[in-house]
Amino acid sequence: MIHDTSAVARGTVDMTGGEQVYLVGIDDTDNLHSPGTGFHARQLGGRLVSGRAARLLDISRHQLLFDRRIPYTSHNSSLCLRIAVAPGGMDRVMSICREYLLAESAPGSDAGLCIAPWTSVNHAIQSFGALAKREILTLDQAVATARDHAIHLEGLTGDHGGMIGALSAVGLRRTGQDGRVAWRPGVRETSGVVTAGYLRQHTGIDVIREYQGDAPIADSDRIDVGRWPRPVLQNGQAVLLIEKGNPDHGIDWKLVPKQILSQF
């Protein structure tokens, strides 16, 4: 269960103006018998909100190279939280992130943490993330890249190997062209058959699009989102990809298969 569910769902923290957007990347917080890094990302987001440290905007999942030579737990994916922080609030954010990962990362994990202002995640960091999807990278490469571009990167448990994925997640999220949205307000609370209008009004989904085609999606169209909708990131937006369903069964559209979503 998400820590302080209501606060996370609303994404509300009383803040004045001048917020700055930050990206928080985490990786390798789990083992084969523990909840995955996606769970920990949502829990950490809840801690940041309930601790009045940040406003949680979204969480994204990024698939890195799937290769048996890489010591991943199950799928070699890393997570990125996009948060809004009031002036002077970063010490509190940093403290909560460290405390959570040190206390909650599973035994045997190699947790890594990366925190960077949105505006500081330059082409070099984005390129590092893109490379992590195609090649085996080293901890030394991650440390050097973060140091050379003044990005905060640290290891907190084990051999710190999660630093590679944490830095990659930040770079990939900044591109706006990679990953699946693991959390936005209202997304994980929605299941079953709902209308497109409901999704547009009550979730953080920006665009609903036919995967192969350009049919208009009316607000009254019925979409089977399964356990919960799984939008992907395209052009910085949360895009729900759908395909034709069976209107005779009350379903105009359904989500595209997971193997298609895995391309993102």
Described by the principal axes of the CA atoms, the overall outline is: globular
Question: So what's the oligomer here?
Answer: single chain
Report on the biggest sheet: 6 strands, antiparallel
Count of DSSP-assigned helices = 8
> What is the rounded distance between the termini?
26 Å
Portion of residues in beta strands equals 15-25%
| Global structural class | alpha+beta
Query: In the CATH classification, which architecture of the largest domain applies?
Result: 2-Layer Sandwich
Q: How many separate domains make up the residues?
A: 2
Average residue-wise pLDDT: 89
What spatial order of strands do you see in the largest sheet? 5-4-1-3-2-6
Topology readout:
Elements: H1 5-10, E1 20-27, H2 37-50, E2 55-63, E3 77-85, H3 90-104, E4 112-117, H4 123-132, H5 139-148, E5 152-155, H6 162-175, E6 180-183, E7 193-195, H7 196-202, E8 207-210, E9 222-224, E10 232-234, E11 237-244, E12 253-255, H8 258-261
Parallel strand pairs: 8-11, 9-12
Antiparallel strand pairs: 1-3, 1-4, 2-3, 2-6, 4-5, 7-9, 10-11, 11-12
Helix pairs in contact: 2-3, 4-6
Describe what you observe in this structure.
With 264 residues, this protein is of the alpha+beta class. It has two domains: 5-181, Alpha-Beta Plaits (2-Layer Sandwich); 185-261, no CATH class. 30% of the residues lie in helices and 24% in strands. The chain is built from eight helices and twelve strands. It has helices spanning 5-10, 37-50, 90-104, 123-132, 139-148, 162-175, 196-202, 258-261; strands at 20-27, 55-63, 77-85, 112-117, 152-155, 180-183, 193-195, 207-210, 222-224, 232-234, 237-244, 253-255. It has a six-stranded antiparallel sheet with strand order 5-4-1-3-2-6, with helices on both faces. Strands 7, 8, 9, 10, 11 and 12 form a six-stranded mixed sheet that branches. Helix 2 packs across helix 3 (90-104) and helix 4 crosses helix 6 (162-175). It is globular and about 55 Å long.
